[in-house]
Amino acid sequence: MRQHTGASQQTIGSAIDMAQPHVSAIMCGRRAVTALDTWLRVADGLDMPSQARRVLGLAASDSENEMEASWTESSLRDSDSSPSADMAREMADNTLRDLMKRREAFAIGGTVLAGAALTELLERWSAPGPRGTRKGGSTIGAMELERIEAATVCLRHWDERWRMGTRRKAVIGQLSEVSELVEHRQRSDVQRRLFAVMAELARVVASMSFDSGDHGMAQRYYTLSLRAVRYAGPEHSSFGVRVLADMARQMLDLHHPEDALDITRLALDQAASLGAPPAVRALLRTREGWSYARMGRAASFERTVVQAEDLLARDEGSGPEWSPGFDEAELAGVVGARYRDLGRSLERPESERFALRSVEYISSALERRGTGRGRTLDLIGLGRTYAVLGEGTESARAVRAALGSGPGLASGRVRRRLRDWYVESSALHRNPDTAAIRDELPLTLLATP
Q1: To bridge 53 with a disulfide, which of 23, 58, 87, 231 should be the other Cys (CB 3.0-4.6 Å)?
Q2: DSSP-based three-state secondary structure for 7
Q3: pLDDT value, residue 170
Q4: C-beta separation of 239 from 276 below 8 A
């Protein structure tokens, strides 16, 4: 059980109301569980899915539907005076439940919150939290804390996680470990550093959930990350801006541009008050422009593109370590994709004008890109733009290059964009190059992750 979850015996024991030595005895095979009430306690404490409960001869769980909204309800109930340990406990409980779930039983992590309920929740958790002043000892040494922080740095980017072969479950296990440390009384400076690590790890798990298409779970962890930032100290406040940018991106993927715009404006206000570096503000302007493009507001979109380009030109690369790495290639790729969105939504000649601008921007992005997922996404995006222009041969050439780009194909987002191209290129099926690559695309790449 410990090997499966990554959680400690103490955490599992707390979840099922059983002393740690008893948990250890069961795991080592020195003690068998035979009493029905004990199995019920284990099943309820670990939030076993109905399928697993039935294997044990227990009734199906009523909590599967209830837990979808539980995280939002607990967040709304919390007040600004809630101790940080409560937040850490909720994080620990969430990671334990997450680790205990079987992938096949829980393909979706819950309902996605949207509209005013979401923005009001984010406004609450974007406010600074209370600053602790506890002195004294800690249960973690300086070297161990530095090890945890160094490991977290290595998980910031998708390409780096892929290179290391890092799985989502491993990151959740690390997050669970940090949450346990925060639950214990630590010296204030140590506690703040642990909360900063917790915020980063929660964002990594959210990003990995987003990449796999599990938006409910992604939003849950994004919100937990935002809440952890409140207790990490003012020097980490700007990290919350990055989390808000991610949440706006998620709303755009879910086709909620109005919500994305509201979240982006909240992030822009925070970025201005915190003096965020130009690259971070440029990223937010692209989120704003993306929202406008999805709404069909071409003039507003082009205005924000100019703002983003001006901001990025002023950036000196002096942002914090977690800064998004937003550069000219990323900007050009995002802007090019949004010009394609506008081209698809309008009639000729405006459609063709915007699509040609898309080709220009994405080609510029590819000139600046190295290897990795970003390049793969840009190549697929270029193929989709050529499909809008009706150029089947060029569209097929770009997608074929994407298929040969390596590690990016492991990304769920990449597979979803390939499916988009597959649908959009159906009108070009008589083009022999397009038809050939449509036939060659492996079903595994078109399957929903």
Answers
A1: 58
A2: coil
A3: 81
A4: no
Question: Quick one: tokens of 339?
Answer: 């010009």
Q: How far apart are CA 275 and CA 26, in angstroms?
A: 54
SS3 129: coil
**How many C-beta atoms lie closer than 10 Å to residue 34's C-beta?**
7
Q: In terms of DSSP H, where are the helices of 275-349?
A: 278-294, 298-314, 328-345
Contacts of 424 (CB under 8 A, 6+ apart): 384, 387, 388
Distance CA(335)–CA(326), nearest Å, equals 13
Per residue in 326-361, pLDDT (tens digit) is 899 999 999 999 999 999 988 888 899 999 999 999
> CA-to-CA distance for 370 and 378, rounded, in angstroms?
11
pLDDT one-digit tens code per residue, 230-265 = 889 888 888 999 999 999 999 999 999 999 999 999
Q: Say if residues 249 and 267 touch (Cβ distance below 8 Å).
A: no
**Token digits of residue 366:** 């590819």
Sorted by sequence, the CB contacts under 8 Å of residue 117 that are 6+ apart come out as: 72
Question: Which fold would CATH assign to domain 1-61?
Answer: 434 Repressor (Amino-terminal Domain) (1.10.260)
The amino acid sitting at 423 is: V
Q: Tell how far CA 274 is from the center of its chain.
A: 23
Per-residue pLDDT tens over the stretch 37-93:
666 666 666 566 555 555 555 555 554 444 444 455 555 445 444 446 666 677 767
Domain boundaries, the chain: 1-61, 82-132+139-237, 340-449
Give the pair of three-digit tokens for residue 181.
């440390």
The sign one gets for the Cα dihedral 183, 189, 192, 193 is negative
Q: Could you tell me which residue, 97 or 294, shows the higher pLDDT?
A: 294
